[in-house]
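Team,

Forwarding the record for the chain on the shared tracking sheet. I've put the sequence and predicted structure together so nobody has to dig through attachments.
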Amino acid sequence: MEKSKILKEIVESIRSIFPKSYTDEEIEEDVLQEILNSAIFAPNHKKTKPWRLKVFRKEEKDQLGKKLAEIYKSTVAPQNFLEKKYQDISDKISKTDTIVTISVNFSGLVPEWEEIAATAMAVQNMYLTSTANNIGCYWSTPGMMNHLGEFLGLEENQRCYGLFYLGNLQYL
């Protein structure tokens, strides 16, 4: 099959696939590395490579889940707190093999929107590579991400723009 047909098939297959559709099977390390490496090929002005990706698996992933639940509990008004939502945070994390936090490093060399756009292109590359490898994924942008800076060790010129969930699929 020629490259353009293969690419067309992959692009038309991209979907946000959520943790309820993931299996307990671990993503193979070489497949995960291929997904992460695809991000570095995203176009970016002045070669700033503004995306900052941090991978969470196993115990680190569980710590991230606890932190997100803690953030939810501490930032939502008591009258708006939903126990189900609180529990769902940990449940969704537990059903996910890998979570990658997506942050942007603002270099000051180009307009901020260009750094955000380049990061989005890096994530699109991860979507394409995940789809090509039959790995379910989606980019989540919960409000809690705005409170992850210290937990992630972000610098003053960096900001978290979401979580990228990854898992093997129950179906192919």
